Amino acid sequence: MNTIDRKQYPELDRLLWDTQTRFLAEKDALDVYERRWPFVDKTKLTETERLLIQQLANRAGGFLPVRA
Fold first, then answer.
1. Using an 8 Å Cβ cutoff, are 41 and 66 in contact?
2. Which of 11, 18, 25, 32 has the fewest CB atoms within 10 Å, i.e. the most exposed one?
3. Which residue pairs from 20-26 have beta carbons closer than 8 angstroms and sit at least 24 positions apart in sequence?
4. If pLDDT is split at 50, 70 and 90, which confidence band does 68 have?
5. Which of 2, 15, 67 is nearest to 45 (CA)?
6. Contact, 25 vs 1, CB < 8 A?
7. For residue range 5-49, what is the model confidence (pLDDT) as tens digits?
8. Whole-angstrom distance between the N-terminal and C-terminal Cα of the chain?
9. 66 falls in which pLDDT band (50, 70, 90)?
10. 64 near 35, Cβ under 8 Å?
11. Is 16:6 a contact under the CB 8 Å cutoff?
C-alpha cells in the first residue's frame, strides 16, 4: 500500500476538508489522523477505515493522537 485514496475512507475524507488532494502517502494519511483525531467521529468509522488506521499505525510503530 503506497497511496491512500481518501474517497474510500469517509472520516479521512472529512478530515481533509481544507485540501482537494485525493491520494496521500501512507505517512501523510497517518499524520492527518494523528493531528486531527479529536475531530474524528469514531461512531462513523467503518471497519475498513479502522483497519486502515491500525495498519498505518503498525507500520509506523504506533499511533499517537494529538490531544486538543
1. no
2. 18
3. 26/1, 26/2, 26/56, 26/59
4. very low
5. 15
6. no
7. 999 999 999 999 999 999 999 999 999 999 999 999 999 999 999
8. 30
9. low
10. no
11. yes
Q: Determine the 3-state secondary structure of 63 from DSSP.
A: coil
Cell output for 64: 499517537
Residues in the chain: 68
Q: Cell 479521512 sits at which residue?
A: 12
Cα–Cα distance for residue pair 6/21, rounded to 1 Å: 8
Q: Does an H or E element contain 24, and which?
A: strand 23-25
11 exposure class (CB count in 10 Å sphere: 0-12, 13-18, 19+): buried
Determine the pLDDT at residue 19: 96
Q: Going by C-beta distance under 8 Å and a sequence separation of 6 or more, which residues neighbour residue 49? A: 9, 10, 11, 12
Q: Which three cell numbers stand for residue 28?
A: 501523510
